[in-house]
Design a protein that fits this description.
The protein has 87 residues and is mainly alpha-helical. Helices cover 51% and strands 9% of the residues. The mean pLDDT is 89.
Length: 87
């Protein structure tokens, strides 16, 4: 058996966050002492220039499934690729 990791970037065109939080606000999800940090982190996250599209993720999954090079990690989307190159 082989396993590979697809690492998606921020895909803001889906409802993943709403489903994960059940529509709760950041203030409801984060304890008050951490709220300033969480608001800044979320602002930085949503304020970036590069984002992942659903098609980026689908194409990356396809590449990972059909890859024969032994590569383990597959960043999906331009933001994820940029982050992986910065490591």
């Amino acid at each position: 058996m082989r396993a590979k990791t697809v690492e998606p970037g921020a895909c803001l065109t889906t409802n993943f966050a709403d489903n994960a939080t059940k529509g709760a606000s950041l203030d409801e999800l984060v304890p008050a002492p951490y709220a300033p940090w969480a608001k800044k982190a979320m602002g930085d996250f949503t304020g970036q220039d590069l984002f992942t599209k659903e098609s980026d993720l689908a194409e990356t999954v396809w590449r990972a499934v059909h890859d024969t090079t032994g590569q383990l990690r597959f960043p999906a989307g331009p933001d994820a690729v940029s982050l992986s190159q910065a490591k």
